[in-house]
Structures are given as structure tokens and as C-alpha cells.
Amino acid sequence: MSTQPTKTLCPYCGVGCGLEVSPPAQPGKATHRDSEGKPMWKVQGDRTHPSSQGMVCVKGATIAEALDKDRLKYPMVRASLDEPFRRATWEEAFTLIVDRIKTVQSTLGSDGICMYGSGQFQTEDYYIAQKLMKGCLGTNNFDANSRLCMSSAVAGYIQSLGSDGPPTCYDDLEQTDCAFLIGTNAAECHPIAFNRLRKYHKKNKNVKLIVVDPRRTTTAEAADLYLGIRPGTDIDLLNGIAYLLMQWGHLNTVFIDECTSGFPEYAEVIRHYPPQIVAERCGIRIDELETAARYWSESERVLSLWSMGMNQSSEGTAKVRSLINLHLMTAQIGKPGAGPFSLTGQPNAMGGREAGGLANLLPGYRLVKNPEHRRDIEQFWGLPEGRIAPEVGLTAWDMITGLETGNVGLLWVAATNPAVSMPDIERTKAALKRSPFTVYQDAYYPTETAAYAHVLLPAAQWGEKTGAMTNSERVVTLCPAFRDPPGQAKPDWEIFAEVGRRLGFAEQFPFENSAQVYAEFVQITRDRVCDMTGLSHHRLAEQGPTQWPCPAEQTLPQINKRLYTDWRFPTPDGRARFGAHHAKGLAEPPDPNYPFVLTTGRLYGHWHTLTRTGRIDKIVKMHPNPFIEIHPRDAKKLDIVEGMRIEVRSRRGIARFPAKVTQAIAPGTVFVPMHWGALWGDQTEANALTHPEACPSSLQPELKACAVQLIPLPEEGTLSETETIEQSDSIAIAFAPRSAIATRS
Q: % helix / strand / coil in the chain, to the nearest 5?
């Protein structure tokens, strides 16, 4: 085996940091081992990667520690959820899945089949899943956990600019005059991108940093101006800034007249947002609002960055469009240091969007509803006209309600953990329990979702399969396999392709390796905004990470490209479009019975539902337990002190957390991290509280806010019998006793 390091990409967030991974044994050096003495791959930052420049956070640095912990190595099956799993062969597992697909097709039709995928897929996995589901099976019922993450950004880009795709790049972090961060705790959730901005900001005192967030986060601590707005008032704030820009005459009228449409309608909306009203609604001072508008108006290059605080909202698309409006009215787009920049949540959510990996998308940034787009894909895939359904498929939440109504006969979940991450989790679990047949494909066992599966399929994960990933700035990196998968685990795309072949579509799945899959995929992007026809596994291996667009005729790799530098947009008339949106506020505002707004988020070291980071000792020690942040004023009213156990109740369920009394959270608002599922704690699920109300455009649930009440628990941490709300049995019961899990819980 070679002792040379392998250049790859971190499989956590969408920053897309380059990593170098070296074998445990190196000539003349002691073997690198984990805390249990097992040989372990060594990980460090790749200094040549253009996005991260050698920097790496604790998650990337410790990733190798989880490679061999609690791995699912063999297919497992059972006839019902009441039975234990037994080991099966791949032949038996494939036969079960194919037979069940055929049965569902004959009883419910193809729309009774659903697949729920993940932004942790490689692009090749995503692409083959689309070909299988949307092409061969003729159902658009493929959605991904990006629905819970980036779908509002997708809808906002498409509606405002004509296409998905951030028009900016990380180079802009070091060329802007004013960085406007809203709904993102980038210092913890996208730390390496934020580090680049922070270093630049420190060196250039004239550069302004504005942070908008109900919590005074680590990100907010670095700001020149912190706006601690009330949850749900983002559009009020953005329209209020627009009001002042228009009042002061800080508009680029040439750009508005020549390059946009819809401004009169937008101007009519923003006249209703004078400073007095906006400041009162947002819970900020008028002078703070005016300072934000002044920073924007006086800057030649304004860069905005956002993430879940904007996207995870019942008006998420409207929020995104309201932010883009500010760029359009001041022509802050298509030039260095300027533009709207969504910070992608997952490592390959961008690649998933390129491959069509949401229920409303088709590969190459095409839309299911567009007849021409459907014909393009059908012809490319060699399928009869009309095979791709004209209706948008079921979203992730639609799949849950489809299980409730009996309209879903087969649910295939891969590389994600909806039994923790979906809203209204008790309802989600009840629906999963009703599923007639669930296939769960993952690298780890146990997970919370595995308790609801009939078939478990072992998947190869990071470092065990070769494929491409695209980060937030549209840079594509090849991620080579540097070790064999454990047991009988297979790459996700191989599993999907084999099912397709067994269903009679051998012609559509002739691939022998992932390089062939990628070679086909890039051809489908020809002449699209995301044109990648110039890319291949070989070229990415030779020249390194490369940013799209990268058409076939482009011979040299380029990085730090921006979209729309000519101020022409991929809309029918070539103009960007203003969106005129009034603020509607939270879908579930507080009331006398539920007087607090709960908001949720990530912690620096942990990732999503702990499937990987919960198995890494260093990170567990860094963040051993969940908690609830509460402002001292609210804590005093309820006689809550630091460390006291608090029961949090919403209209849907309960959870319990130790109190963290801090002025970092606004009065009337509380915060809990979203990571801890039932496998890792007792009644510590944030999503036991959240609701599924979603944005009408993006269909992204409002995971960021719901109304709750707080009840201090007696010292022993239990309520009296009459006060206790009945809860469903812990999901951990579904698993055989495991001392390692019990210890961590």
C-alpha cells in the first residue's frame, strides 16, 4: 500500500475543506493509533486546496476516528419491526427490494415508491438515484435532507436570478467592504469560511461586519454591528434597510432599469417599512437599523451570507428574495467582493442540486414542471417521451404524511437519519412505524432510523468510494477511495444501479465504476448554468479542485469565478427579478400558553444527528450534553438557575435539558442544539418540539422556531405523575443492549 497522502474533501459541512489523509503506518514513524490502540488514518488540512487553504476544524481533523466504529457491515433483514434483524446476503436483500418495488407498482403505482437521500451522497450517488427513480420508475418521489437545509436558497435563487447557484466565491470574503451575515452562526457552523473573513476583517479596519441573529453567537461577537432581532422579523429588517436606501437615494437606477424587473411592485411594498415600525417589530433601536443601512449604502462591495436561520422558515424563500433585493437595488452582484452567498449546510448539497436531487428538480439545474426539461432528460436517458412525470414528487414531509395515509408502500432512506432530523418527531416516528416496507442504507448501526427498517443495507462511506463533491462556492473536488469498505459494504450508486438492472433497465446502468457515472452526468449539464462538461475524474485528479462553470472548451482550471458578471441573468428576458414580499412572521408565534420562542441550531464540534461525531471521543468530550439557553431575565421570572433541569413543552411534545443562563440569547427566546436523538440522550430531541409548517415555495419546514413553555423540574428531575405527559417508548428499546451506547447516553 502507498504511504503517500490522499487528497480529498471533508465530508461534513458545505465549506468543502480539502484534506490530506495518510495511512496509519509511515516509514520510520510510530503507527498512528486511536484511544483504543487501533491503527488510524492521519488527517490534516490540504494547503493546496483553494477553498480552505490548509485550514481544518475539529470535525475534519478527527473524521478518521469514526471510520471503524459501529459500522454496518452486512445486509440485515426482518419481516416485521417486532422481530430482530438477521444477517442476509446481498442476493436476498436485492431480491426483497426488487420484488417489493414490483408489488407496489402493481398496487399503488410508481408514486407509491419514495426515496429520501442525503447531501452526504457523492454526485455519482445522487445522479444514479435520479436515473432510477425519476427516469426508470417514472416517479419524482426523490427528496433529500437538503429539503430541510437549502431548498429556500434554491427557490430564492431561481425566482430572483433565474437559476440556482451562488453567484459568488470564497475569494469575495477577502475583497468585500461590508459583510452582512444573517441567520448564520458561521463561526461555529462554517468555521473555515468564517476564519477567512475574520482574518481579512481584522486586517482591514475600514471593512464592516454586520451580524443579524436572535443569539449573540461567536459570530456576532466579531461584528462591528450586531442586530439581535426577534425571531421571524428578518423580512421586516431587510425591507426596513431597503426603505432607508430608497429614502436616501442610494439606488443604482441604471442597473435597476436595464437589468431587473419588478421594481415598482417592490417599491410599493417597502414604503410600508419606515424605521419606527421596523425597529419596534425587530426589537432593535432605530439608530442600529440606520447604521446597517448606512454601512450597506457606503460600501462599494457588499457581500451577504446566510444559512439555516433564513432558510428554515415558513417564509424562507421570501426571506432569501428580500435579501437578494438589496443586492439588486444597489447593483451589488457580479463583481468582486459582492453578491448574495448562501452557506451550504452539507458537503455535497450543491452536487445534489446539480444532479437534480430534490423532488422538483432534474439534472443540470432543470425543473420537473418544465416540459422541455423533461424531454431533454428522457432523450438523454434513452427513455420514452412522457416517462418522467410532470408533477413535482413528494417532499420529505410529504413522504411522512404519505405513510400516514397509506399512499406510500415503500420508503427507501439512504445516508440520513429522519427519525431525529424531521420536524414533529413523535408524529414522524409513528408514521415510520406504519411503513409497509422501509429500506435503510447507511454506514453505521445503530441509528435511530434503523429501528424502523425492514432491510438494512451497508453503505461505503467517506474514504471507501470514489466520487465528486461540490462545495458552497461551486468548487468540485474528487474524493478518492483510500481504503476498502468494511465487510460487504457497497457505494450507494452501485446499490441503486444494481436494483435498476434487476428491474429490467440494464441499458440505463452499464457503469463499471464511478468515473463512468460522472462522465455521463457531466454531459447532461452542457450549456446549462452549471456546465461541467470539461470535468472528469481524470481531470480533477490531475489538475485538482475546479470551479464550475467549466465547459468542455475550457482547457485551464479556474477558481474564484463569479456568475452574472455581465449583468445578464438566465431568465426569459435576461433580467433579474425583484420579489415584493410583506413580512408574515412566525408560523407559530408565542402566546400566553406558550410564551417563549424556541430556536435550534448546531454546535461547533457536532454534526447533524451524531451518527458520526457522537462516536468520536474528542468531540463528545467537547460537547458532552445538550442544554437550553435562557436569558437571565426569563430565568429569574421562573426561578431557574444554572444547571437546573428544564422541561420544554410545545403543542407536539416535550424535551428536557439543563439550563444555561446567558445574556447571549434574547429575552423571550430560548435555544437548544438539534443533534441529540433518542439513541444519545433521554428526552433530548429538539424536534420533539418543532412543527412541520413550511415555506409555500421551497416546502422547507420552519425548524428554526416554534412556541414553547418552560417548566423547572424538581431537583430529582421528574414531574409528579399527574404532570407528566405520556411519551412514546425510547427508540433505544428497538436495539439490543450495547454497553458503548448506554455509556454515551
A: 35, 15, 50
